Here is the input.
Amino acid sequence: MDDKKFIVKTINDKDAITVEFSGNLIINYINDIKLSVEKLNVFNSNINVKLTRVDNIDFTFIQLLLSIKKTLETKKYSFSISSELNEDMSNLLINAGFNKLMNSNIN
Here is the structure.
């Protein structure tokens, strides 16, 4: 990563907006990540979350994803997640019971 510890970017698709997260998705940066998401103004469309090149992930980030999902569901928009996590991170999320939330492709 450059001087930023995380990256949040969007890709506008025909039927949804893809929000891509990478880097350190952890408690140390969760407020900045949350502000980045709020600035994107993506809560009035279907959202596909994509996790790529994740260095670290923790439950504060998972809580943020759950909050986004709940917000979209109340507005009748769809929410999906795809991820490319290493085996350790994928196992952590599966063992914590988040395997239904995460659609992990282990690399």
Summary: Residues 48 and 80 are 5 Å apart (CA to CA). Helices lie at 30-40, 59-74, 87-95. The beta strands are 6-12, 17-25, 47-57, 79-83.
